[in-house]
Amino acid sequence: MSLHVFVLEMKKLLGGLDGWLTKAVAHAEAKKFDPNLLLQQRLAPDMFPLIQQIQAACDQAKYAAARCSGKEPPSHPDNEQTIADARKRVATVVAYLDGFTKDDFAGVDQRKISLPRWEGKSMSAVDYFVELVQPNFYFHLTAAYVILRHNGVEIGKRDFIGATTMRPAQEPSPQSR
Amino acid sequence: MSLHVFVLEMKKLLGGLDGWLTKAVAHAEAKKFDPNLLLQQRLAPDMFPLIQQIQAACDQAKYAAARCSGKEPPSHPDNEQTIADARKRVATVVAYLDGFTKDDFAGVDQRKISLPRWEGKSMSAVDYFVELVQPNFYFHLTAAYVILRHNGVEIGKRDFIGATTMRPAQEPSPQSR
After folding, report:
1. Measured in whole angstroms, how far is the alpha carbon of residue A87 from the centre of its chain?
2. What is the mean pLDDT of residues B68-86?
3. How many interface pairs between A and B have CB atoms less than 8 angstroms apart?
4. How far apart are CA B31 and CA A50, in angstroms?
5. Residue B161 above 90 pLDDT?
6. How many CA atoms lie within 13 A of B59 on its CB side?
7. CA separation for the pair B92, B79 (Å, rounded)
8. Is B76 exposed, middle or buried (0-12, 13-18, 19+ CB in 10 A)?
9. Which residues of A touch B11 (CB under 8 A)?
10. Nearest CB neighbour to A169, from listed B110, B120, B136
């Protein structure tokens, strides 16, 4: 089992997010309101609005892939104003994740990660991925989804989960990946 | 990297959910409403209410651990009526997950999973975990969290993420796990 499969899953889910945003625009147009107003919606006054949920999900996926493979993550300033901007941000991260291979994560079990704000402390790359990146990624992704559902956008659970690698009954046992 | 660390993380996060429910009861008592009313709150008419989000998160974690290690998952009927019942359900699953060891998942890369409703199709256990269990688990867990936040319960992002395995600066590189 390679950490790469978890990175590929984040890439797939961000592709799903792009689809939700397309449906959000269609919903706003049908209801005759500015779709970009959705970006400022939030589910509690002290929670992030949609645009920040999207930015945070993008950042978690990007940092995960970069740091768990020992690369320098690219910087993406949080300056998106419209849904078109948000979709561009998502597409940038999807393309970035697409550049990683299984080999990039071959040394993950030995890798140590230390961020400036951790004041000298460190985490193993696996702990960082399991305990910080994934919970944060899914938190922000789900929050974005729920904000859209709460505002009437017609998306369902299948738009969240997306396609799965289901195999026909006859196929031999899967190879390790 | 063992799949066991991802199961341990789900166990930790369910422990966090138990803490949110404790704070939910305190919030309801301070506001003088029946805390069990929270279990019927939802963020869209066609989304699960809190109690079903909790039940679904519990089930995903239980099924993941059982199926990825080749065991028969225990059956937990969805008959919870109160927050006390919901906390008991969470505690049951946390205790169940606690019984698994790294060795239980040693064969996960070769394991194949097939559920009756898949009509003969199958998934590799790793694909099942990465593409179905985790997204579903985090979806329902985050939805439960957001329902509580939306209803004024005083929990924050730290209550979601929980404690992490941060190491002091001097410690040698982590061992693979």
Report:
1. 12
2. 97
3. 163
4. 29
5. yes
6. 14
7. 14
8. middle
9. none
10. B120
Contact criterion met (CB below 8 Å) for A53 and A140:
yes
- Tell whether the torsion through CA atoms of A65, B126, A164 and A151 is positive or negative: negative
Q: How is chain B split among helix, strand and coil, in percent rounded to 5? A: 60, 5, 35
Inter-chain touch A9–B177, beta carbons under 8 Å? no
Averaged pLDDT of chain A? 95
d(Cα A118, Cα B168) in Å, to the nearest integer?
10
**Which amino acid, residue B53?**
Q
**Token digits for B130?**
């990465």
Chain A residues with CB under 8 Å of B166 CB are 118, 121-123
Contacts of B12 in chain A (CB under 8 A): 131
**B35: number of Cβ within 10 Å:** 18
CB–CB of B139 and A157 under 8 A?
yes
Is residue A80 helix, strand or coil?
coil
ipTM: 0.94
Tokens of B2: 């063992």
- Angstroms from A138 CA to nearest CA on chain B: 6
Nearest to A9 among B123, B124, B130 (CB): B130
Instruction: Say how far apart CA A53 and CA A40 lie, in whole Å.
Output: 10
Tokens found for residue B95: 């205790």
Question: What's the CA gap between B141 and B1, in Å, rounded?
Answer: 24
Hey, is B112 helix, strand or coil?
A: strand
Could you tell me the CA-to-CA distances from B83 to A49, B24, B68, B88, B95 in Å, in that order?
29, 9, 30, 9, 18
For residue B170, pLDDT beyond 70: no
Residue B47 and residue B134 in contact, taking contact as beta carbons nearer than 8 Å: no
CB A87 within 8 A of CB A18: yes
Q: Which residues in chain B have their CB less than 8 angstroms from residue A158's CB?
A: none
B7-40 residue pLDDT tens = 999 999 999 999 999 999 999 999 999 999 999 9
Q: What is the pTM (predicted TM-score) of this model?
A: 0.95
B-chain residues near A109 (CB < 8 A): 1, 176-177
Q: How far is A3 from chain B (nearest CA, A)?
A: 8
Both tokens of B166, joined, read 């941060």
